[in-house]
Amino acid sequence: MIHTDYRWEIRERDGLLVVRLFGEIDHHNAVRLRGDVDDLLLGKRPRRLVFDLAHVDFMDSAGMGFLMGRCRLMQELGGVMAVQAPTPRVLKMLRLCGMERFMEIETDRKEAKK
Amino acid sequence: MKRTKQSAVNFVMFRLPALSVNEGVARAAVAAFCAQLAPTAVELSDVKCAVSEAVTNCVVHAYHEHAGLFTVTVLLFEDRRVRIAVRDRGCGIADVKKAREPLFTTDAAGERSGMGFTVMESFMDKLSVRSAVGRGTLVVMEKQFGSGGKRT
Lengths: 114, 152
What we know:
The structure holds two protein chains of two kinds.
Chain A: E1 6-13, E2 16-25, H1 27-44, E3 48-59, H2 61-76, E4 80-84, H3 88-96, E5 104-106, H4 109-113
Parallel strand pairs in A: 2-3, 3-4, 4-5
Antiparallel strand pairs in A: 1-2
Helix pairs in contact in A: 1-2
Chain B: E1 10-17, H1 21-34, H2 41-62, E2 69-77, E3 81-88, H3 96-99, H4 116-123, E4 126-132, E5 136-144
Antiparallel strand pairs in B: 1-2, 2-3, 3-5, 4-5
Helix pairs in contact in B: 1-2, 2-4
């Protein structure tokens, strides 16, 4: 199935912002998603940002660039960022790109909510 | 890359404009064509990632987000091996060795991870990159489906 679109949902509580992503995060979608998410972060200024990747079917190195960019923005805003519940395929990409050096990677959804 | 004498049992060639929307189109088309070799879900996912990286390079770097064309050729071999070539006629790469280094990017401001060639190399068994400045780039990748493939 050709599925190049994405969508996202947010949940927030006490300075925690969880952005749940759906679909495929490649260069095409990352460019559009970046603008939306940055507007959200600058508006809400959460202390902790968590990307829930459980429903991300595909992520390439452009998706990694997107995550690194948001991680940097969160640092500038004085907060921290984590990703949670990546699928095994997305986790493989996160590890290949050494993302654990920049952000917490929680394989379990509950851990990242703390 | 060492040439094989084995002839392909099936192949497809398609050409698309280097638009970012075609990153998803190209990887889905290649995955659909590869399905006849019955790869595992992991193998198919690896191929999709590698194709996405090669096509994103065409869109972002070869043509600098201006329309040009790229050609994808997929060859399937009897021994469950796939060879994928992605060719553009864009700006070319001045230093291929440097471009293949992990984290190297010519566009630090653009949130590039610099991992495109590293992903292709890690997720496929073989990668060859030939490029000439002003003439374009040819990326050829191979993967063996089944037990013979490199495990990542």
